[in-house]
Amino acid sequence: MLRRPRRWPTRRSTWPGPVGCGPAWRGRWSCAPPPRSPGSRPHRPARGARAIWADASAVGDAARTALALSRLPGATADDRFAALLATERLAARGVAIDPDETSADRPADDRPTTGVGRVGVLVRTLGRFEVRVAGATVPPSAWQSRRARDLLRILVVRRGRPVPRGELCELLWPDDDPSRTGHRLSVLLSIVRGVLDPDRVFASDHFLVTDAASVALDVTHLRVDVMEFLGAVTHGRRLLARGARAEARTILAAAVRDYRADVFSDEPYADWASALREQARAAYVAALRMLADAHRSAGNGGAAVDCLLRLLEQDPYDEPAHRMLVRTLVTGGQHGEARRAFARYRAAMRAIGVRPPDEIILAPRAGVRSPATAVPRPG
């Protein structure tokens, strides 16, 4: 969200328009001061421009506008999905858009800035914990305390739900006297506010909403990668249900690509992270399964095999994945690889006391032609 200037531009002003939209915007749109709710009026001109470019078959301009809109503060999940689909369509045509062209890390006028009013905050939880403010990673020295990092991680795990102060104190100082930890929590809250808003652009409750009883992270004012990942998997499932298989493959492939590691892999034994970690891992497995099936339906056996092998890395005893892998290899004409996959399938089922599969699944099905796409060798 931007701070309100003294005078907001009118229709005849020289306001350059949303980040990355180019000279076609100049002098054509008015803008009101941005409301506090995300996805509100400052985004309407950008969405209107995206529709205009699309109607005019200006694919490149529409994609750039969609990407710029997805980087604005308060952009919705639909805005980000639209940008992803637009850039993927251009990539399929051999046209590349530089993500830095409309990056949220760079102001439209290229003037230096260190505040987060224009560029926002990104919290990375998939893999090692990391916070990026104004496009730069927050250095360890800015946290002043490991517990300040833990406090933000706990609040991220709760995804906007208020956490009682007593519970936070118990999680952060399990062996200390509760009467002595209340002040310490207030100090940590001040540190976290300073990390997320180093230039003090916003009110104190912009990122952290506190009262005498609880603390919550306002997730509408920052991005959290695991929340975007879970939203993408859900969106991909809905697209499949509507029969939009090509769009679903794009969304699910991006989600799978973004899952770099389990949530807070640098804190594998933190009990407060286990629920979100398991939810994200289950979503990752589901995304791989849906993506493998979508690739098979499109005749892309190689991509399907890759998804299935990654799925079996997560769960070596997943019987449907084993069966789909063997059948995909057989359909692709990779009969030697299919037999080796079948042997692993049989060994895994025997290890857990499940009836091993019959070799009939190794027989090619009549009338099913092998796809032209080469199937990679399983590792």
From TrEMBL:
Task: Report domain Bacterial transcriptional activator positions.
Answer: 224-368
Name by which UniProt lists this protein = Tetratricopeptide repeat protein
Please report a single Pfam family linked to this protein.
Answer: BTAD
Q: Which InterPro entries match?
A: AfsR-DnrI-RedD_regulator, BTAD, Sig_transdc_resp-reg_C-effctor, TPR-like_helical_dom_sf, WH-like_DNA-bd_sf
Q: Which Gene3D superfamilies match?
A: Tetratricopeptide repeat domain (1.25.40.10), Winged helix-like DNA-binding domain superfamily/Winged helix DNA-binding domain (1.10.10.10)
Identify the species of origin.
Verrucosispora sioxanthis
Lineage top rank: taxon: Bacteria
TM annotation in the entry: none
Q: Which GO terms describe its molecular function?
A: DNA binding
Q: Which GO terms describe its biological process?
A: regulation of DNA-templated transcription
